[in-house]
Amino acid sequence: MPTIPWSLLADLVLILHLAFIAFVLLGAVACLQRPRLAWLHLPAVLWSIWVNLAGWTCPLTPLEIALRRAAGEGFYTGSFIAHYFAPLVYPPGMRPGSEAVYVIAAGMLAWNVALYGLIAWKARGSIGRDEDR
Question: Is the CA virtual torsion 44, 47, 53, 55 positive or negative?
Answer without folding.
Answer: negative
